[in-house]
Amino acid sequence: MELFLKFPKILAFFLIALLSAQLIAKEYTYSKMGPPRKLTPQQAEVAEANYKKYCVLCHGEDRQGHVNDHAPSLRSKSLFESGIPHAVLRPLSYGREGTPMAGYLDEVGGPLTLEETWNLTYWLFEKSGAERVRLSTNPVIGDVTKGELVYQKECATCHGKNGEGVTAPALGNQSALAHNTDEVIRYAIRHGRQGTPMKAYAEILTEQEIDNVTAFLRSKASGWEMKKTVLRRLPTPDEYVVNPDGPHPNFKLQEDLYVSAEDLNTALQAKSKIVLLDTRVPSVWQTAHIEGSIPLPYYADLDETVKDLPKDVQIVAYCSCPRAAADHVVRQLRNRGFDNTAVLYEGIFGWMNLGYPVSRREAVE
Ligand code: HEC
Ligand code: HEC
């Protein structure tokens, strides 16, 4: 004490240093990073065409998001500021397991090469007009129990009680938690996503509350690894019809289009003759599908692929979003004279939730 009285300047300096350290810590001045490599006009053209072919169905013509299911906006600045490898390239490449977002990289059974996934990522980045921000990779420390209280009060209505996603992304999703660092999550909470229902919580919650809720979300991660996969063999045309000698299923369709999971399951149990089309990206067909289904992704060139489909057999298409991709394919099939066509109303997630069987890929070492 005496020492401090003798040296008030030291004390003042000490206090100011402490205070300003606090202030800097609370201000979150993020430093900017330079832009990534710029696309050539040809690369940009291909990337734009790929966006139209593969992404518009759910994320929309203008990258606005929320066209089908709860596909997020792909133009909010805060998404692209927070690190494109984490926030964009990885979901695009590997998908978010258990959500309608499939993996598009060829390595996991998708249609795009590594270079195409990078170019599409850069194209989206350039379109967003965002500047990259340098985010720390350190863990965010917070009180998980307090964080859960904030979460249930402020976030659960949109993101789900268990982070399963209701009208907003599944924050408890293991692939998302594996791909996003703590700081990416905190940045999204603090800054929100411009032009979407996700508000900037830096103006609503205290920094401590934001850290707590970030720590709570992190505590939901139970580990996820990209499994080494041996891709399954795709069915050949002579395998397209399930139960080729069975009876016609005689479905009563809702709105002249939809068959219920219950009716489809009953028909399959009765060994009815059906063609099942999985209209998702084949990477997710690889992971799990209704036994006997053939992958016919929503972006397939139908003139090429439908020539081997029979017109006199009941065709049922399904997807996970929960119907958008299947609707899209069936509409085109009907334009080509396939009248015996239907869409699985509940989608494959609904099918699985009802406990009906799927064929899953074995984990391979
Ligand atoms: C069948 C619908 C569908 C299609 C087609 C689709 N997505 Fe998605 N995408 C989603 C959904 C749903 C999510 C959110 C999943 C979650 O986390 O709950 C998502 C999430 C994402 C994310 C993560 C964004 C964020 O805010 O976390 C990116 C990036 C993304 N998609 C890019 C793409 C790109 C690029 C394409 C085209 C190659 C594409 N998606 C095609 C449905 C789709
Ligand atoms: C009114 C509904 C709503 C509420 C309440 C809400 N969010 Fe969101 N949140 C969204 C939507 C919608 C998105 C996706 C936005 C987009 O299109 O990019 C999102 C995105 C996010 C993301 C980015 C996810 C990703 O995959 O990129 C995080 C993290 C997040 N929210 C956390 C929270 C937290 C934590 C709270 C509570 C403090 C919260 N949100 C409250 C609707 C909401």
TrEMBL record:
GO terms for molecular function: electron transfer activity; heme binding; metal ion binding. Keywords: Heme, Iron, Metal-binding. InterPro entries: Cyt_c-like_dom, Cyt_c-like_dom_sf, Cytochrome_c_Oxidase_Subunit, Rhodanese-like_dom, Rhodanese-like_dom_sf. The keyword Metal-binding applies. Residues 42-128, 142-221 form the Cytochrome c domain. Residues 270-360 form the Rhodanese domain. This is C-type cytochrome.
